[in-house]
Amino acid sequence: MLAIDVELLQKRFVVQKNREGLAGAFKDLFKREYREVKAVKDITFQIPQGEICGYIGENGAGKSTTIKMLTGILVPTSGRLVVNGYVPFKEREAFVKGIGVVFGQRSQLWWDIGVVESFNLLRKVYRVPPQDFKRRLDELVERLQLGELLSRPVRKLSLGQRMRCELVASLLHNPSILFLDEPTIGLDIVVKTEIREFLKQLNRDHGTTILLTTHDLQDIEALCSRVIMLDDGTIIYDGSLELLKANWSKGREIHFHFGAPTALAALEQLTSGLGVQWRLDHELSAVMWLPSEINVSGALARVVGAADIRDIKIVETNTDEIVREIYKTEKVAP
Ligand SMILES: Nc1ncnc2c1ncn2[C@@H]1O[C@H](COP(=O)(O)OP(=O)(O)OP(=O)(O)O)[C@@H](O)[C@H]1O
């Protein structure tokens, strides 16, 4: 079954135009003018149950608007939308029992009361039976090491502690789909890694479908088998991260450290005809650049037998560079 089924989904906002200057502001008082913002333009995609999908794009691309429609917060202007078997904005009460949502920049916990009291309130909101709630809470508290935080008010938690509590809050009713909007924003690398590991395990053990928006491409690399990339309200890529890298990677660099001084001409001679390029950093260290279509082992074989190599490091183009490259150009074929 599909977890998310979206067809030609569109969201337009009508916003007031602000005329410039004092005279403009004065005119605005009497005759307002409006313009239309097309935040999401006829997007279509399907996400099967159990998939972790990254939803990425630059600021203003339409990610949050999509998530808000998928979670029933916003009503689409047009298009078809089925999440977990429900039309989110129509069947809200039944629908929310099957989804969990974490907005990295907003909290679903009550600021001044103990964390566990917030969890108890959420139990009542979602009508989770007490035994199920206890079992699930114990499991999550142990997995995310929240033990001694439970009695503290949310305002006294660090951002990393709060984010771990937000995750628990979103999972107490055992949803089958989890929407995460920037879940690692502002966190240090240790907490980010912990949260990524937790999400991977959740997906593996419970088959939870996860849709994740993020500006941190390490989140995508660590978690997502699939990426949907949005630009100006339109999907410009929908496919695997591997394919994205293969099509858009500018190649790889192989860093060599030699045991004896080596000349640039000698290195170029070794790889002649392959289409690689060399850069000599100093006489003991050089970098070979390979276009992505050239096989690393073939190129390495030419050098390994002929030079005194002490160390080799292969550096791939990272995902951030690839995405930056894509945004500089037009549409991407999946
Ligand atoms: N309530 C609203 N009223 C008017 N325009 C809106 C509203 N919400 C979003 N927009 C506009 O719709 C477009 C898409 O916004 P959205 O917040 O979905 O982008 P985003 O990809 O989530 O960006 P970010 O990464 O900055 O959160 C933007 O031009 C934004 O200004």
UniProtKB/TrEMBL annotation:
UniProt entry tagged with the keyword ATP-binding: yes
Pfam families for this protein: ABC_tran
GO molecular function, one term: ATP binding
CDD domains to which the protein is assigned, alphabetical: ABC_NatA_like
UniProt cross-references to Gene3D superfamilies, sorted A to Z: P-loop containing nucleotide triphosphate hydrolases
Keyword tags: ATP-binding, Nucleotide-binding, Transport
Residue stretches making up the ABC transporter domain: 24-257
UniProt-listed InterPro entries: AAA+_ATPase, ABC_transporter-like_ATP-bd, ABC_transporter_ATP-binding, P-loop_NTPase
Top-rank taxon, per record: Bacteria
Name this polypeptide is given: ABC transporter ATP-binding protein
Organism of origin: Paenibacillus sabuli
